[in-house]
Amino acid sequence: ASIGVDGHPDFMSKEIAEQPDVAARIVDRLAPHVLDGSLWADLALPRFDRVTVIGCGTSLNAGRMIGGALSSLGRVPVRTLVASEAADAVMEPRTLVLALSQSGETADLLNAIERLDLSRSSLVAITNNEHSTLARQADSVLTCDAGPEIGVAATKTFVAQVITGVAAALSALVASERMLRSDAVRHSDELRLMPELLAHAIAVSHEVLPSIVAGVLDEPGFLFLGQGTGVVLAAEGALKLKELSYRWAEHQPAGELKHGPLALVDRGTPVLVIDSGDPRIDRSIAEVDARGGRIVRIGGPGSTVPVVGLGRPAGPMAGARRWGPLEAVVPLQIFARDLALALGRDVDKPRNLAKSVTVE
Ligand code: AGP
């Protein structure tokens, strides 16, 4: 049967709306196997000392989120490789290579894997296509189970990759005793909250973003700031905005603002800030505010877009979750789509781009 938009104006709208259900499906399937380490043990892979994450575009961003979980929660050394730049990377023994690709057919990634010396590494594919070339080449496959994604802009597959990868990472850390069980319990509870958090983020975003977007239609450039894995979300937000609206967008770690990018900020410059709970973000916001920048704060209660932290226990974990706040990606997707539609763009088929890039 052919796939339709199911009452939505476009596939992107449908795929954004599907995210809570996609998350629920993955969490229901994987969460019961996290804490006993069996999710990881079932992949039957040798022990690893370090991790290399590799991919392109949004899949690479998903990999960075998972890498953030592995290094901050398990003190695992993690390196990230942009697939098109990976050819000369030196692979140390006992490296776990996490290769991420929605399609599993991206030429830059497949070629990188072919050229790298993986003889002393194990290769795990995190893909939405278990029958893909990537899946066939991997030692083990983690399927994302997001269902077909038609819109060129990756949305639900990003969320699916991150949840799948973080679940596997937690399970690996438990299995190798790199993580306290009590921490693993808290993070696995956090995974179980994701469907609800994503649904809340969708509702809030649709409520508050239209008037914000209406005020920035003529802005030529957008800045995205974050900290920790919030920097990755900032990168993902900037990528979505570029590919859908054809406007310039840049992402930066918030602390880097004062080392150069602050010069971009003028009266009215839109600055989207992913506030993951680290109080140092306030300083960056004050710097933007003093120059008349238009701040869109995506964070907890009291933010411009209050999507982070609903129903989550307060305390240190809330501010330092290490692999999130994943729900903050939702307003970034909706912001980019709303802006693109207001500018008359085709959000399912942006110019110059293909869903699966099978040339180098
Ligand atoms: C994301 O919105 C893009 N369309 C693009 O960056 C994409 O994620 C990239 O081309 C990788 O594709 P893959 O996941 O199929 O490998």
From TrEMBL:
<dbReference type="GO" id="GO:0006002">
    <property type="term" value="P:fructose 6-phosphate metabolic process"/>
</dbReference>
<keyword id="KW-0808">Transferase</keyword>
<feature type="domain" description="SIS">
    <location>
        <begin position="41"/>
        <end position="178"/>
    </location>
</feature>
<dbReference type="GO" id="GO:0006487">
    <property type="term" value="P:protein N-linked glycosylation"/>
</dbReference>
<keyword id="KW-0315">Glutamine amidotransferase</keyword>
<keyword id="KW-0677">Repeat</keyword>
<dbReference type="GO" id="GO:0006047">
    <property type="term" value="P:UDP-N-acetylglucosamine metabolic process"/>
</dbReference>
<dbReference type="GO" id="GO:0005829">
    <property type="term" value="C:cytosol"/>
</dbReference>
<dbReference type="GO" id="GO:0004360">
    <property type="term" value="F:glutamine-fructose-6-phosphate transaminase (isomerizing) activity"/>
</dbReference>
<keyword id="KW-0032">Aminotransferase</keyword>
<protein>
    <recommendedName>
        <fullName>Glutamine--fructose-6-phosphate aminotransferase [isomerizing]</fullName>
        <ecNumber>2.6.1.16</ecNumber>
    </recommendedName>
</protein>
<feature type="domain" description="SIS">
    <location>
        <begin position="212"/>
        <end position="350"/>
    </location>
</feature>
<dbReference type="GO" id="GO:0097367">
    <property type="term" value="F:carbohydrate derivative binding"/>
</dbReference>
